[in-house]
C-alpha cells in the first residue's frame, strides 16, 4: 500500500450490508461543540418567556440542529475515516463554537460574524461532497444535488454580507431553502435507491437525544440545593421523574422504530426532519425546567408565560412529535400505545395553553404524574404487544 493510500481512502456508500456499525469517536467528539451551542441558546430567556423569546429559541435551535443534521447524514453515508475526512470534522468544532459565541449579537440583529462562521461550515461540506463527486463510483447524481444546493446557498449567503439587514434576511432564507431542497432533489432523482445504514442513523439521533436529556439533568443539578433546602424540596423528585420518563419513552418504548430507512425517501425525510420537533420539545423541557425550579426555590418570577406552562406544553409536544414520527415510519403500531399517547399529549398541551395553576411547582407535579402514568402504560402495552407478536410468529 502506498503512503498516499494510507492517508486518503476510497469513498463508497455505507449501507446496511456492513452489519453492525456504531457511532465513531470523532462523531461523539464533535457533539461536544453542539452541547455548548445549545446550552448558550437558553440565554434568550434571561428576561422571560415571551412569544418572541420562544420563537428566537426555536430558530436558533434549528440552526444548530441543521448543522449537526447535515454532517451526521454525510458521515452516515460516506464516512471513510481518512485524514481529509477527519480534518473536516474536527475543524467543524471551531465555527460551531463561533456561532455559539455570537448568540447575543444575533439576537440584536447583527448576523455578520455568525454568517462568516456559517460560510466556513458550508465550505467544509462543499469540500466533502466534492470528494464524493470526484472519487465515488456510484450515486454521483445524488451528490451533485447536495453539492449544488449547498453551493447556491453559499453564494447567496456570501452576498448577504454586503447588503442591508432586511435584504440580508431574505438572502439567508433563500440560501437555507436551497440547502433543504438539495437533499430532497438528490433523493428524488436517484429514485430513492440510496442504501442507508438504518441502525447507525438511529443511533446517532439517539445520542443527540442523550445530549438534550443531559441539559434536563443539568437543570435539576443547578437548582438542587436551592430547592432541596426549602419547603418545596419534593419538587426535585417530581422533576427527576419527568426526565426519567422522557428517556424511557424515547429509548425503551418502541425505540429502533422497527423500520428500514434504506432506499426509502419518504421514511428518510420523515425520520430525519421529524426528529427536529422531538429534539426541540426536549430542549424546551430542559430550559423551562431549569427556570421553573429556579422560581420554586423562591427567586423572582420572569415576565411573560410561566416556565411551568411552557414545560407542560413541551412535554405534551414531545409525546405527540415522537408518536407521529414512529407512526409514520415504524412497522409496529400498537393501538393501546399510541391512542393514550395522543390523548395525554393533547391534555398536557391543553393544560399549558389554558393554565389552571399560578405556580410553577404545580405544573411540574401535574406533568410528572401524567407522563409517569403514560410511561407505565407504554411499558405494559409494549410488553403485551411483543409477547403477543412473538407468540404469533412462533
Could you give a short description of this structure?
By secondary structure, the protein is mainly alpha-helical. 76% of the residues lie in helices and 1% in strands. A two-stranded parallel ribbon has the order 1-2.
Strand and helix map with partners:
Elements: H1 3-7, H2 25-41, E1 48-49, H3 51-78, H4 83-101, H5 103-107, H6 112-135, H7 140-160, H8 165-189, H9 198-222, H10 224-228, H11 235-252, H12 265-296, E2 303-304, H13 307-329, H14 335-353, H15 360-393
Parallel strand pairs: 1-2
Would you mind describing this structure in some detail?
The protein is mainly alpha-helical and 394 residues long. 76% of the residues lie in helices and 1% in strands. It contains 15 helices and 2 strands. A two-stranded parallel ribbon has the order 1-2. Helix 2 (25-41) packs antiparallel against helix 3 (51-78), helix 6 packs antiparallel against helix 7 (140-160) and helix 11 (235-252) runs parallel beside helix 15 (360-393). The chain is globular.
Number of strands: 2
Question: What is the count of helical runs?
Answer: 15
- Beta-sheet strand percentage? under 5%
Structural class: mainly alpha
Strand order of the largest sheet: 1-2
Helix content: over 70%
Spatial separation of the terminal alpha carbons: 50 Å
Helix and strand element order: HHEHHHHHHHHHHEHHH
Biggest sheet, open or closed, and with what strands and sense? Answer: 2 strands, parallel
Query: In angstroms, what is the radius of gyration?
Result: 22 Å
User: Overall pLDDT, averaged?
Assistant: 88
Low-confidence stretches: none
Overall, the morphology is globular
